[in-house]
Design brief:
The structure holds two protein chains of two kinds.
Chain A: E1 3-5, E2 10-14, E3 19-21, E4 24-26, E5 32-39, E6 46-52, E7 59-61, E8 64-69, E9 74-79, E10 88-96, E11 105-106, E12 110-115
Parallel strand pairs in A: 2-12
Antiparallel strand pairs in A: 1-4, 3-9, 5-6, 5-10, 7-8, 8-9, 10-11, 10-12
Chain B: E1 5-7, E2 10-13, E3 19-24, E4 31-37, E5 43-50, E6 53-56, E7 65-68, E8 75-79, E9 88-95, E10 103-104, E11 108-112
Parallel strand pairs in B: 2-11
Antiparallel strand pairs in B: 1-3, 3-8, 4-5, 4-9, 5-6, 7-8, 9-10, 9-11
The chains are: A mainly beta, B mainly beta.
């Protein structure tokens, strides 16, 4: 069965600290996509990254980086030098290729609070 | 947000009324997905539609909920005889053929009095 687990419900850090948000997934497919979305207090969903299962290269975008490890079924997200504007709920999601529906399976989300 | 338009942004209904949520996909997108976010929870897939077809409705409650995506016009998520438990944020996403990537609208916050 498909499942995404974000074990950290809430994280609180002080500005400029680094923080890692964990994501572990389960799937029987060998081909799939993984995603991270940000939901700020205003409520919209902001797409951050998509990674396919064949590409295990880590990715860096500014202060954001992602570590994809197939061996441990994890797709962790690190924010370096966090800022107050990073405060949001972050969702990890999985989409399988089989069935070709493209539907997303979301984790429960991690609420990140960055204090000044 | 990324061109997917949802309206209304906020909708208040009394128990027993009907709620209609609309979603206009991004230009060129023919696939629409609806997700529901209950308070303090993650998003849950409800239904996947292409023009005039329901492809996957495995996440839709069996009663009172329906969805359509007509040849012309927006996709509609319809909830009949609403109950308090229907209070949630309902997000629509659209994608090109192939299902990826999905772009989300800003959501409709449904409140039931």
């Amino acid at each position: 069965a498909q499942k995404v687990t974000q074990a950290q419900t809430e994280i609180s850090v002080v500005e400029k600290e680094d923080v890692t948000l964990d994501c572990v997934y389960e799937t029987r497919d060998t081909t799939y996509y993984l995603f991270w979305y940000k939901q700020p207090p205003s409520g919209e969903l902001v797409f951050l990254i998509r990674r396919n299962s064949f590409d295990e290269q880590n990715e860096i975008s500014g202060r954001y980086s992602w570590n994809f490890q197939k061996s441990t079924s994890s797709f962790n997200f690190t924010i370096t030098a966090s800022q107050v504007v990073d405060s949001a709920v972050y969702f990890c999601a999985l989409s399988e290729f089989s069935g070709n529906t493209g539907k997303l399976i979301f984790g429960q989300g991690t609420t990140l609070q960055v204090k000044p | 947000n990324a061109g997917v338009m949802q309206n209304p942004r906020h909708l208040v209904r009394r128990r027993g009324q009907e709620a209609r949520l609309r979603c206009s996909p991004m230009k060129g997108h023919s696939h629409v997905y609806w997700y529901r976010q209950l308070p303090e929870e993650g998003l849950k897939f409800m239904v996947y539609l292409q023009k005039e077809n329901i492809i996957d409705e495995s996440g839709m409650p069996k009663e009172r909920f329906s969805a359509e995506f007509p040849k012309e016009g927006p996709s509609i998520l319809r909830i009949q005889q609403v109950v308090r438990g229907d209070s949630a944020a309902y997000f629509c996403a659209s994608s090109p053929p192939g299902g990826q990537p999905q772009h989300f609208g800003d959501g409709t916050r449904l409140s039931i009095l």
